[in-house]
Design goal:
Layout (H helix, E strand, L loop, with lengths): L5 H8 L12 E7 L4 E9 L5 E9 L2 H14 L4 H5 L3 H7 L8 H17 L16 E3 L4 E2 H11 L4 H8 L9 H17 L6 H21 L3 E9 L2 E8 L7 H16 L5 E4 L2
Parallel strand pairs: 7-8
Antiparallel strand pairs: 1-2, 2-3, 4-5, 6-7
Helix pairs in contact: 1-2, 2-5, 4-5, 5-7, 6-8, 9-10
Length: 276
């Protein structure tokens, strides 16, 4: 059974801004009914490029409803420039976290929002938004190469299983899994190419310093802590202490905070593993 935050449950039971805007300035869709999840989002945008209203219609699980609901609250009152900076990670964080197997619901919200911005004719600075013709990697769920790369980049994904959790790619027949693995390998190889190479001893000392001086103090602020147990190549084994130990959001703490901090400061190949 998955653990959901109170905020997820609240937005599932009492979704905000459900419905349709007949004279919407932008409309975006993501997902498909054949895949089991679909979202349509409507935006009203004034002459100052401020989103004045947002509504959604969705078909899917409770996480899809909650992600769509919180997203509308996040964007109302913001400028288009501000809205464009929202990622699926922001959606999940605003909900207090989602189970790994349900992160694709936050990605669907991000993709629907991006599609709506592309539809917004009054906004012209869209150079970095995807071209309409994209390479399909997962034919079962119509997941594109760009969607997979976006999910990897935003969430620091390392495995095919994680990509499946966030995008559904590979969750059908599985024939696309080698292609997903190739995308992962190429992406992370490029990320590490420009970084100065550390010896294993240098890497261990740097990881230990970052855990002691950056990560641990942040966790201690909320009554938690972290202990470095071992390092094997790029695998960092840690044990959570205090309030972090046994917390239902401990996985998010490890992956979103600890692992990403080490990836950004040491190597994109770092993988953090919890030791019980």
């Amino acid at each position: 059974m998955w653990d959901y935050s109170e905020k997820v449950m609240d937005h599932y039971r009492n979704p905000r801004n459900v419905g349709k805007i007949d004279d919407a300035d932008a409309v975006g869709t993501a997902g498909s009914l054949t895949c089991g999840d679909q979202l349509k989002i409507y935006l009203k945008i004034d002459e100052n490029n401020v989103v004045t209203d947002a509504k959604f219609q969705t078909f899917g699980c409770g996480s899809a409803v909650a992600s769509s609901s919180i997203l509308t609250e996040m964007i109302i009152g913001k400028t288009v420039d501000e809205v464009r900076k929202i990622t699926n990670k922001d959606i999940a964080d605003e909900l207090g976290g989602l189970p790994p197997e349900k992160m694709h619901c936050s990605v669907m919200g991000y993709e629907a929002l991006e599609d709506a911005l592309k539809d917004y004719g009054g906004y012209t600075d869209l150079d970095d938004i995807r071209e309409t013709k994209e390479k399909i990697i997962c034919t079962c769920f119509q997941v594109t190469e760009n969607a997979i790369i976006d999910a990897i980049k935003t969430n620091g994904l390392k495995t095919v299983e994680e990509v499946t959790n966030y995008t559904k790619a590979g969750g059908g027949c599985g024939k696309c899994k080698p292609a997903i693995k190739a995308i992962l390998d190429e992406y992370w190889a490029k990320q590490d190419a420009d970084k100065p190479k550390l010896t294993q001893t240098q890497k261990i000392l740097k990881i230990n310093s970052i855990i002691e001086n950056q990560i641990s103090p942040e966790l201690q602020k909320d009554g938690g802590d972290i202990e470095l147990v071992d390092i094997e190549d790029n695998k960092v084994y840690v044990k959570l202490r205090g309030k972090c130990s046994g917390c239902k959001n401990s996985h998010m703490t490890l992956k979103v905070f600890v692992e990403q901090t080490l990836q950004e400061t040491v190597s994109k190949q770092i993988e953090v593993i919890e030791v019980q």
